[in-house]
Amino acid sequence: MARPGGRSARVQQAVHAAVHELEAEVGREALTVPLIASRAGVTPSTVYRRWGDLRELLSDVAVEHLRPEAEPEDTGELAADLTVWAEQFLDEMASPSGRAYIRDALLGDPEGANAGQCSAYAAEQIGTVLRRAADRGEQRVPDAETVLDRVVAPMMYRILFRPGGLDADYARRLVADCLTPERDRR
Amino acid sequence: MARPGGRSARVQQAVHAAVHELEAEVGREALTVPLIASRAGVTPSTVYRRWGDLRELLSDVAVEHLRPEAEPEDTGELAADLTVWAEQFLDEMASPSGRAYIRDALLGDPEGANAGQCSAYAAEQIGTVLRRAADRGEQRVPDAETVLDRVVAPMMYRILFRPGGLDADYARRLVADCLTPERDRR
DNA sequence: CAGCTAACGCAAAAGAATAGCTTTTGCCCT
DNA sequence: AGGGCAAAAGCTATTCTTTTGCGTTAGCTG
């Protein structure tokens, strides 16, 4: 955006707020650009020009919803920190609204910038957990890439491609397997 | 569908064929229901009634594209079989058209049936590879779930959420790590 | 072969998206 | 401060998509 301040900023905020309100009032399926624009006190053409289409707008909004609200909990031990974080992550992402936001974020975003942001959020939180562990002097702290591959990716894959059968125990198993590489599998 | 044979089947095939043709001719972005319907020799309302909207239709077509065309190669050894398969899988899925099909399949499919089908295709191919290995009497053959979690899921996650930086070497590493669980990580 | 009904065609109407042009409003420069 | 430039929003007409109601066709069943 060439003009971050003033009217542009107000319009962006009004439109995002309108999406939030209308999502709650009429449901995601019933959202349309004219409806959102009218609620935001803006003309539809403004929305089309700024966002291109409804999908891209919803993609933007979805990324906001997916931003973590707090720092990961600090229990004093890596395994517990990661487990708690993974359980909560899975819980949020696998819920109906979480799945809807993920899909929206992926969808209206051919370049992958919004999707990349989602991954960056997770990477950031994991980085925090791992850094704490390293600062405490814990041994065998994996790197963030490994945790993304071994914990986050399987959860996301199942959320997107294999609906059903996801629970906190699965998250715990992934974390445990990730932290104990010598464990034998059949 | 209550009437699998006759006209219904012909319409379905004509519409799918029209999508294929037009994808090649005008590009995915330019596809519209009226355009597809006219090419298929059908009225738009028929398409809307059968598929609901464009996204669901494209989701159906995408799943067809994602169906594997051949059995996995048989090299006589599990590690090589899996490596070859993963390399090819990543290559196809990470390509621009592969990514587009994945997104389409996920998108127009609130129930997740089409997405589940994609995962089932991969599981089937992996199952074939693992079964061969077991029949040969190889030791330490993982189960299909493990391969999905450790090989397929990370590739898919990166394709969807972290564009860029994907190559055959990554696929090889995932397979190797999956087959040698005692390997130490930092 | 006769009846039933799902599925399609047709056409009208509602709604959404686009494009051209005008107006407003930040922002920068003197 | 004031003036000029250009980005962004408003307005409106037009096009295209989507929905809907009703009549027709054509598989399926007895």
Automatic annotation (TrEMBL), chains A, B:
SUPFAM superfamilies: Homeodomain-like (SSF46689), Tetracyclin repressor-like, C-terminal domain (SSF48498). This is TetR/AcrR family transcriptional regulator. Residues 9-69 form the HTH tetR-type domain. Pfam families: TetR_C_11 (PF16859), TetR_N (PF00440). The keyword DNA-binding applies. InterPro entries: Homeodomain-like_sf (IPR009057), HTH-type_TetR-like_transc_reg (IPR050109), HTH_TetR (IPR001647), Tet_transcr_reg_TetR-rel_C_sf (IPR036271), TetR_C (IPR011075). Residues 32-51 bind DNA.
